[in-house]
Amino acid sequence: MNTITCYVGTVLIWGSSWLAIKYQLGVVAPQVSLAYRFALASLLLIGWCLARNISLRFNWRDHVFLALLGLTLFSTNYLLLYFVTFDLTTGLVAVIFSTITIMNMFNSVLFLGRRIEKQTLIGAAMGLTGMVLIFWPEIERSGQITIGVISLGIVGTYSASIGHIVSARNQSRGLGVVPANAIGMLYGTVLLLGFAWLSGAPYTFDPSGTYILSLIYLAVFASAIAFGLFLTLVGRIGPGKAAYATVLFPIVALALSTSIEGYQWQVRAVAGVALVLMGNVAVLGTREHLRAAFAHFRKTT
Fold it and tell me: Under 8 Å CB-to-CB from 287, ≥6 apart: which residues?
């Protein structure tokens, strides 16, 4: 598969996965739907590892961090973002999640002791201003409700960013990305099932075609195939160029949201999205932190 196909495939799959999430909401509780998704994705990755004789054995210390990976990257963040999708169009949820690039930079300062650059601060300011412009009409209409929903999205995104820090630690210990994610997703599945039990959510299943197809798409394509395409891309063109997929996938999500969900564009929203995307570009442009930040980002799906 050529480089252009890998790049376009990554952007299109991750960009469209937000709309697929919309079809998971309704009959089945979000925590249960997510458990189905990551159980299937985990089984696929475990099968891949077994077929290629990739070891799935880890010591108990590594299992602690794999469980933490499951908590932050494969359960909490997705669960919160699924709940946010009840109230916001999928394109706007994708815009919120795109701020993970900025969060990764600041977390590299907090947890890895790296120096923050002026360009990172400028990018963060642009992103924050853009978010205010995008959501201000909803805030004026719904007030605290909208602020609460957006806050959930930000917390969910930050949980994913912490997961990237954990994943970076796992790599530094020599843990392979695919087997670590396979076990991390398995832990995430167990945690989601446990949360479903504690919250009293029934373990139901929606037999409709839209639910089943969106579940397969999220588990197979968004959680397995796109991950493989992205890592292939990293190996071919380097982390710097590959990281710009994080800037492009919200554009795909917004385009789909406009055509399918009827998202109404206003001048303020256009300016806001442009600022968020330019803020991400500005952050990714920092030379010293690009490699470390991308190492955190590349574990997500």
Answer: none
Map tokens 């949201």 to a residue: 257
Percent of the chain beyond pLDDT 90? 38
92: amino acid identity, one letter:
L
Supply the pLDDT for residue 290: 43
Q: CB of 293 within 8 A of CB of 67?
A: no
Question: Nearest Cα to 296, choosing from 38, 55, 72, 8?
Answer: 72
Tokens of 84: 């946010």
Where do the H-state alpha helices sit in the chain?
Answer: 3-22, 30-51, 60-71, 77-85, 90-98, 100-112, 118-142, 144-172, 177-199, 209-216, 226-242, 245-256, 267-284, 287-297
Give the residue extent of every domain in the chain: 3-297
Any idea which of 20-24, 50-54, 278-282 has the lowest mean pLDDT? 278-282
What length does the chain have? 301
